[in-house]
Amino acid sequence: MRQSGIALLFLTLLVLVSCDSEQPVLLGDDFSGWTQLNAAPITATIPGHGSSIRNIFVNDVGTGVTTTTSGPRIVWNYPEETVIIKTVAAPGESGYSAETTMLLGMVKNSEHPDSQGGWIWLTRDPRTGEEMIFQSEYCVTCHADANERRTTTDRIPTGVPNPDREFRDFVFFPYFPDE
Ligand code: HEC
To answer: Is 64 helix (H, G, I), strand (E, B) or coil?
Structure first.
């Protein structure tokens, strides 16, 4: 039952993605010099990822994130051209040294026709370099949870807790300007 659910999810993914080879490359392979946002490799199981190992990096632009208040709520806003990348690797025999099998990216570009919540949502196959922008609401719908109240005991424990329900700009592992 659970397996067929996962198979269905992947099937849905295949149908929902779109690929345009004319697009400029949005994510590269080289994140040296970028800021890592997770303290330790993320291994918690989340839908669609199985038992993968994830790491998250932000480019320099993203470290210029600002916060304002809107009524009682703190609102985070990443600058245009922020890029946040999540690397996904299958667990290898030696644990965390596994090879990256997939990159997921969020690129801040509010004017882009495919942006949702101000971000372009895409994947990149590190072997072929092929990028696919998601035009469906699949990514943004789940990431809206990052903007909701979340504590360490909630069902999806991954991500930094958000006890005051700050609008985190759809980012589960935010860059904290004071760091
Ligand atoms: C079912 C929920 C869910 C869906 C669907 C989802 N994500 Fe995520 N995403 C997460 C969670 C939870 C994290 C926090 C890190 C982790 O656990 O891997 C995350 C982290 C990320 C990050 C790192 C920035 C951050 O928020 O911490 C990027 C980039 C990302 N996802 C891109 C995508 C893209 C692109 C898609 C669509 C192809 C997508 N995600 C679909 C739940 C989801």
So the answer is: helix
Q: What is the CA radius of gyration of the chain?
A: 16
- Positions of E strands within 78-149: 83-89, 100-108, 119-124, 131-134
| 68 CA to centre of ligand 1 in angstroms | 24
Q: pLDDT tens for residues 94-108?
A: 444 557 888 999 999
Measured from the CB, is residue 174 less than 6 Å from ligand 1?
A: no
d(CA 153, CA 34): 30
Q: pLDDT tens digit string along 38-54?
A: 988 888 777 655 668 88
- Domain span at residue 108 reads 2-147
Residue 108 CB–ligand 1 contact under 6 Å: no
Judge whether 174 lies within some domain.
no
Widest CA span in the chain: 50
CB 84 less than 6 A from any atom of ligand 1:
yes
Per DSSP, helices labelled H in 18-153 are: 138-143
Does a structural domain hold residue 93? yes
